[in-house]
Amino acid sequence: MLTRHLFRLSKFSRGFATHAESFSGLPAALHLRTGQSFKGKSFGAPRSLFGETVFSTSITSYTESMTDPSYRGQILVFTTPMIGNYGVPHNKAPYDSQDVGVVLESKGIQCAAVIVGDVAERFSHYAAVESLASWCKRHNVPGITGVDTRAITTLLRDQGTTLGRVAVGPDSLLPAPDAHEYWDPTMENLVDQVSTKVPYELNPTGDIRVAVLDFGAKANILRSLVRRGAAVTVFPWNYDFNAVRDQFDGLFLTNGPGSPTHLMEAAVNLRKTIQEWNKPIFGLCMGHQVIGMAAGLEAYRMTFGNRGHNQPVLALANSGSIKAGRVYVTSQNHQYALKLQDPFPAGWEPFFINCNDSSVEGIKSTTASGKNVIGVQFHPESAGGPLDTIEMFSDFVNDCKATRLALNLGPRANVQTPIDYPLNVPTKSAPEVTVSA
């Protein structure tokens, strides 16, 4: 009897789901450069475009994935059959010691387009204010629904990440483009498109001062730092940190889109920082690859990359909250990785290895080097995904505090000391997490 009543209650509660705004449903097609085409119907913006077709195995957090700047220029295929069932939240938050201006990972949708098996016609969530279709339309991002995303994913796994064309409306009736007509976004410096253009500060009264090189930072990276008491100054990707490094207690390098080969300027600057500076440095995703290049390792393009919230990595060494021999489940979004070589560059050692494909998931400076530099390919801050490695942010902040005390600098809580920016570079009075799509 109780089970029957609970079933009736659940059916009644579903009646409160909000109808999504009706979308055009124009005929649409996804053409792959390798010759395959998939036909469905459109939602979001009724426009056609080129991009790099990738897939994500994420089961939840489609809003966080779509606003992740690392997806810049990419046609994002979700392997989860239904997308949009909990809508899209209001994307504004305060600038304070707990938040950084947005709820999601940036101010707007960053991916070029989305491909889903079934877009939800109803959405239900207490924080939702609009549907996935209306959100995409508002940000001029096209979507395709009603296609076999499992078949697309199988192709991308077998033949690798592939350039694609989203064709909507009359364009969908035209023949697929010739191979030479496809646009490759990785040929451009996508990091330069999404990085902040001028420095800005968050939580200026924090206990320690951390500099962030913005290669396309997810908001939760900055949020994870300010919530641990750090005063954060975010710099453009190619800013010469060496000019201001003595004013900071640590350096953080963020994630970002595209190929790391466009960031040699940042890698050269970082090499000098590592050689001459003995304070903590932490990088993730693209930041990890830049650290690797500065150390002398080579970055390469993977077949289809790792994108999802379920990537297992094996820790090879102890460091703070990380214990050697443990497997951690991580959130990832990358197409490039560092080559595993033997011997490793002097002063460096592997830190994590991927349990699925044996790719390098982390490197660290050795104890003998006297440095404190760590890079990881995954996202400890998640958003979305597992929180297995979130305490790496605490480890980094604690190391910055310990270094500050070791240098007899004392606490800096509730002290706002202006940063001395060289070259007359102004700071923002109203910071943005990243450049909007």
Automatic annotation (TrEMBL):
| Signal sequence, renumbered to the chain | none
Top-level taxonomic group: Eukaryota
A Pfam family that the UniProt record links to this protein: CPSase_sm_chain
> Where's the Carbamoyl-phosphate synthase small subunit N-terminal domain?
26-167
Transmembrane regions: none
Identify the species of origin.
Leucocoprinus leucothites
Q: To which protein family does this belong?
A: Belongs to the CarA family.
Reaction it catalyzes: L-glutamine + H2O = L-glutamate + NH4(+); hydrogencarbonate + L-glutamine + 2 ATP + H2O = carbamoyl phosphate + L-glutamate + 2 ADP + phosphate + 2 H(+)
What EC number(s) would the UniProt record show?
6.3.5.5
What GO annotations for molecular function exist for this entry?
Answer: ATP binding; carbamoyl-phosphate synthase (glutamine-hydrolyzing) activity
Give the protein's recorded name: Carbamoyl phosphate synthase arginine-specific small chain
Q: Which GO terms describe its biological process?
A: 'de novo' pyrimidine nucleobase biosynthetic process; glutamine metabolic process; L-arginine biosynthetic process
